[in-house]
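Q: What does the assembly look like in three dimensions?
Context provided by user:
Components: two
Sequences:
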Amino acid sequence: MKVVTLSGSIVGSKTRTAIDYTVQSLKEKYPKHTVTLVDLADYDIQFSDGRNYLDYVGDTKYVTQTIMDADAIILGTPIFQASIPATLKNIFDLLPVDALRDKVVSMLATAGTPKHYLIPEHHLKPILGYMKAQVVQSYVFIEEKDFAQKQIINDDVFFRIDRLVEDTMILADTYQKIKEEEDKKYDF
Amino acid sequence: MSMEKYRINPDQGLEFGIYTLGDHIPNPYTGERISNQQRINEIIKLAQLAEQAGIDFFSVGESHQEYFTTQAHSVVLAAIAQATETIKIGSSSTIISTLDPVRVYEDFSTIDLISDGRTEIIAGRASRVGNFELLGYSLRDYEALYEEKFDLLQLINENEVINWEGEYRAPLRDAKVIPRPKEGWLPIWRAVGGPPGSAMKAGRAGVPMFLATLGGPATSFKHSIDVYREAAANNGHNPDDLPVATAGLFNVAETTQKAMQEVYPHINEGMKLTNGQGFPKQHFAQGADKRDVLNVGSPQEIIEKILYQHELFGHQRYIAQMDFGGVTLDQLKEKVEIIGNEIMPAIKKYTSKRAED
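A: Here is the predicted structure of the complete assembly.
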């Protein structure tokens, strides 16, 4: 299975730190799967102009293609102005409307204040649903106080990320089995 | 009926056509891809087979990206004009946005003369947009380019000498666009896909409409046709003068099951390569339902589907895409025969105005 972890901001370090641990957890527990980390800060991505993703070039093509090829995606996002960053929204805008069909998607969010706790629920899940993702319902919410010097300092966060990884992979495995069984029912 | 100027007589029943996008995709059963040259020659051959089977129309599309081979679609059409005698031919579609309408008109007038008055233009604006950068245009002007260039194409069609000024092409002063087509005029259609907004624009312009119908319930496409006719009527055009055509995926075999089985890999793999996403099996399975526009099935199922669509749409032409995704010419031969021998006679019988009426 192809798993992509996406760090959805081009500034700051908290989301990347959390995603780094996510990758580590994935690799330890699921060594047979391919894990690709995409940190948007590492790429020069253009704004969506509505074209089919195959018509983009360079970094934009690489990132969209990587997401399109994934079976499971773990999204990491900071909260900016009570919403997801524009850089992450742009990724969704670059993709076809049903780009996340047959993909399992889960989320972790980092934020400066606990007041943002419901932002992924209200801003990110509706987008994932519209794009036909199989969404892992519970997500990990990590606050500023859980980080120091680009490290996670609250052990509870590790446990929660481990559970997110496990939930994601359980759903991805299950979904793949269901999909195979359903596809077998068709005689074409 | 004044659809006559579009060379269509609705009394003779629904026209049946075949179209190709000029895709050049490996055969998913063998993994092998024929050469560009063979593919182009087979498209010309398919047009000849269509003519022999009595099919009304054959058209070739323009796409400027990988896995396509009829970028110079007007050149392929010229070869088809020469290789055939009676079948109507056209483009499906010409991406007018990134071409010079003067040059397009010169080409298609010439093809019309070669074909002795059988040529039509279906002008679209591309769903894939590789052509924009390749041909020196900006995708930012996607809408404006199409509208301006389509209008100019129509102006040239109506007038041999034109005076014109626009944003995306040098002005034309007392410009004579020749040669003129055989009848002095070409049927020019607007290619429409996606949400009903485009159909409304075609209606407002009073131009015949070609509607792409990839899959899904026929009733949702009826909505586009209804708003098209309504927009035409609201803007001083008589919808009875304006033909409507639909285009969609097609496969026929002895049984619906076999028709679905044999074509699914072609469509699924072909769409992955040309569109970046396959055709979900669940949707494809629903396509067998009579109410779905996907014309895949046994001859009888297809006849019923097309007649159902005709009842809903009241359209004048249906064109079938049956070569997509590396279907072999041998397979196409058989299917073209079934269309000519079984499907078309039934469709004409039920959609034409009988003598006694």
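Follow-up: The mean pLDDT of chain A is 97.
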